Amino acid sequence: MSLESLPVEVLLECLYRLPDEDLFRLRRVNQYFRDLLCDEYFWKSRCYFRFSLLPVIPSDERLDWRKVHRDAFTLWGFGDFGLCDYIYRLIPCPYPGMNKIRFRQVANGHNFTVAIDFDHRVWVIGNNTWGQLGTASSNNLQQAVVLKHLRAIEVAAGNRHTVIRDLDNNVWVAGCTYYDQDQPRQLHRFRMIEGFQAKAIEAGGHHTLLIDLNDEVYSYGSNVHGQLGLGDTESRNSPTPLGMKAKRVVAGEEFSAIIDLENRLWVCGWNKFGQLGLSFSRYPPFITPNNRIETIPVALDIEVKAVACGIDHMVLMDFEGKVWSCGNNNMGQLCLGHSQNTDRPTKVDLQFEVKQISTGALFTVLIDEDYRVWTAGTNYFGTLGQGDSHHRAKLQMIKGMRALSVSTGHTHSSLIVLQTDY
Known about the structure:
By secondary structure, the chain is mainly beta. It contains 5 helices and 25 strands. Strands 3-4-5-6-7-8-9-10-11-12 form a 10-stranded antiparallel sheet, with no helix packed on it. Strands 2-1-25-24-23-22-21 form a 7-stranded antiparallel sheet. The chain has a 4-stranded antiparallel sheet with strand order 13-14-15-16, with no helix packed on it.
């Protein structure tokens, strides 16, 4: 019995399961298969069959499902990857050694990248000065390598450290990950935090936030500006409870944001530029900008779906897909069309709804409802992915790129791609 004589539904089921090379080999057999492989519906169905993580995407004539099949869940980036090759990627491009791997999550730190593939393997690349890649050395990596001893479901990356949540919800850390007598200590191999399991992890500039299996929030690391939310400025070298429950924690350079179980936003840490969204009027006149700190989480009068924190700016997304921003705006990173700072969340004028927000050091990246990627802020190292080095105070779309998710580091961004025209 020939393949083409099979019932259509049986034939399609077989073709959905075939490896790519065998599929294209069949195209040379006869006209029937050539016509089938030109059918857009076939490629769309094969994508949904192959990629169980692919969200249900509304019918969109602008999507090329053959390209989606080729590109979906591959990892691309732009900016300074930390490869020490003195090359800044001005437009999105694949990561060295990772171009044919499919990824489920990625986290960017200060010029290094950590990603989890479909098999839960952990890949690392880039700057490794503090041992944050967990490779037992401090040598930078110009090609991605797999950490053979770990399988993960979540990764987080800070300035100099990496946090991993494994398949059993254990937490592993490497790099400059904790403070002992206010001095940083570094680990060149991943070490498990004994007796602690988490459902969410987050890495900030020099501190770590965790949510345990009972939704309780913990923090540790540097606490110079009260970013641990513990009521003081003393650093901690092990997870310490804040006495509150949350569904999401996000860490900036020296401040933190917490979304509680009722979607209220709480903030703590440094408020020098208004990055906490707390008005300067709350501080007495004799308090200098450097001393505007909140050591205990303060609730903002806003419900949010997501929050992203940079060095000293914060971006919020509400449940209608609208975006708000506050803090330092010297490079236009607040996406407001000007460079004036603001100490209260200010609505960003958008003509589209947003699916995801992410903030780098001095820039912001958004993914809209059609999976298009938009950037604004500083562009010194190609951090906006626009093919030039011009800073932007208004969001501009990266042409030819659609992404499922984004993670931003100090001066680079990583995209888990849906489709690319590059």
